[in-house]
Every structure is written in structure tokens, then in C-alpha cells.
Amino acid sequence: MGRNFGVSIWLWAVACATGVRRLGAADLDSAPVYYATAPDNNPVARLHLELDTGRTKLAFDREKGYLPAILKALEVPVSSQVLVFSKTSLQRNRIAPKTPRAIYFNDEVYVGYCQSGEVMEFSAADPALGTVFYTLEQQAEEAPRFKRQTEACLICHGSSATQGFPGHLVRSVYADTEGQPIFSLGTSRVEHSTPLEKRWGGWYVTGSNPGREHRGNMILPKNTRHQPRKNPHGTECSDLKEFFATEDYLSPHSDLVALMVFEHQTEVHNRLTRVALETQLVLHQRQEFDRILGRKEPGISDSTSRRIDSACESLVQYLFFAEEAALGGQVKGFNSFASEFSKKGPHDALGRTLRDFDLKDRLFRYPLSYMILSHSFEQLPVVARDVAIGKVVQVIREGNCDKKYAHLTTAIRREISEVLAGMSPLWKERLAKN
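The chain above was modelled as a monomer; its predicted structure follows.
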């Protein structure tokens, strides 16, 4: 799994940043995380168990292998398909403008597929381990099996961009006619604060974005030395047939709205992973210090609390879409992703949900991420979850003097409170209590 598994899509890392020193892979593989050997507990792991016990079978498609069956089993919508044509992942020899790599996702799982690929690639949100990675061989077998990837991926893909924790990294690159990134022209890391004009280099994009010209659908001649000033396909594209044979994929689209949700969600997962693993690490270190020094003081030290608080603050700011880039005009996709995503809910009594889109000034109508209701958030270590909940409630109730929350007016915070309480009895109780 060693070469270049996800420079532009997802980059997994292990050198954990705790305080001023960096932890190596061995630290995550030892107490308290045991990343390589601890039992995994996520949708991919559960599907693996069902395949092992024979409760589930996967049909093998002659053209697309296990892809259709996998998406159905993991409840990953075809409409989430996004396509990347830069050679920036494991099966780079299979990827080019004529044969882009497809990624599909739901709230907890990401699936990577290459035409004629040897394997399918997966990452899944795991409450105890953060992001966990797998491959599945694309060969017809009576009992196909997922292979969990640990050291081989993590050692090669350590990154300060994910603060040393296993995670995702979405990048925008300039790519040539073979899909080779032209690194001399620069790259951009992408999440919801990235201006749209810097997004989607090396990706295909279907949809309309009249406000800003993005970098999607742009294929440059080899040895291009200067960034292009114009992108003829950078504001609207409804049909990708001029680039490749769209009939070879489950969908003819690489939806603009799906791309924006994908970029937001991967970074939420990164920050959830940081909170989960950082909390485990600092609590364990505190226990070890107490044991060595013979201390029996109850509670958590100030230094431990500060580290947990810092990780939680970073998460909460992102959940509230702090520093989100303005869209600059009405944005829309050309497939069913947006409507399917919003319908998933949950909804309050008025039919409102945190999944409602705005797509004119910002991504969502209510600037609090739907990931606040995710299993990964609820399964954070209790001490960290309580800190994060307290911060969320404080921002909703009182706002915050931090300029990163300046976009949350009194009216917006009131709406967020109503929608969140109406969607979740648990959050209704939390908002009433704190």
C-alpha cells in the first residue's frame, strides 16, 4: 500500500501531534490506542463479519466487480459519485483523464474504485480508532474478504496536514493529459474554507457555479509552466462525455454539491479522529505519570484539560462552519445527490434538517454540521464529548467573542437551536440542561 495512496483524495498519517513533540507510528500501535491490532468497529468491519459468517453474500459484476454490491451493502448512494483523474492514489497506473477514479461516500464510509483495478479501497469512521483503511480484491470469490491496512499505509502517508493522525486529505492539483500532477504550478488543500476558484483541480465537476470559476475539468498540456488564466469548463458542465466514456461508470456525474459535502465531511472526520485519539493519548500519559510519581490525585490535570480543550475547540469551530468560503452565487448540481442527501434527515416537526442546503451564500442553510448527530461524535471519549457539547451549547446560546463565530447572528443561532432540538431528543435535553 506504499506508493502514493491519496495525495489528492485522502492521505492517512500516523505521527501524532501531541504538545510540541511528534509521536511515531509505534506510539499509535502501543497503549492506549493499539491502532494496528485493536478490534475495529465500523460499517466495513461489520460487513466483513457478515461475509465471514455467511450472513451476507456479495454478487460479482463482470464489468465493475464488487462495486454495485458493496455500495448496496454499505448503503452508499450512487449519486455521491465524484471523479478524480489526477494520478494521485494507490492504483495510479489505472487513473487518467480517460479513466478517472470514482469515489462514493455516506456519513461514515468512503469507497474508491478504479476501472480494471486490482482492489477497491475503503476508509471508515471508527469511534475508537478514528479513520481505518481497507482494501478488497476485485476477483470473484465465494467469500470475498476485506484486508485491513495498517503499517504499510500509515508509514508512507504520515502528514502534518492531518496533524499526524490517520485521516483524509483532499487536494486540488493541476494535471496534464496523462493525469500527472504538475506540482510546479502548486497545489491547494481543500476543505470548506477554500475559495471555490482554488478547488477541484484534477477532478471532474458537473454542475453550475456562475459566481466563481473553479479548476475542475481542466486538463493541461505536458510541461505547462504557468497557471492558466481561464478554465473553459470552470463555471458550468452538464456532460462529461467529451472527456471520457461516462457509460463505464455507475453515474455520468461528478456532482459539484457532492464534492462540497465530501470536502466538508472529510475534514470533520479528521477533527473527530484528532479529538478521539488525542484524548486517549493524553489521559493515558497522565495515568502513567501518576503511576511513576506515585500520585493519587483524582481528576484531570490542567495541562491534560488544555490539550483536550484545544482539540475540541478546533472541532467545534469547524462544525459551525467557521471561516467558510462564500459561494458567490447560486450553485447547483445536475443529479439527485442534493435532494437525496436532504431527505435523509432527521427532520424537525416543520420538516427542517441540518442537511438543508443554501447553495447561494454558503453550503448549508443552517451553519451547524449535520455531523453533530454522527455516531463518531456521540462515541467520542466521554470527557472530550462533554467538553465539545458544552462548547456547542455555549455558542448556540451566547455566541462567542471569537471572530470565527461572527457569522452566527442571534437569528441564525435561534434557528439552529430550534432545528437541532427538533431533530434530536438528546440534543433537546442538552440544550435545556446546560
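Residues 17-256 form one domain.
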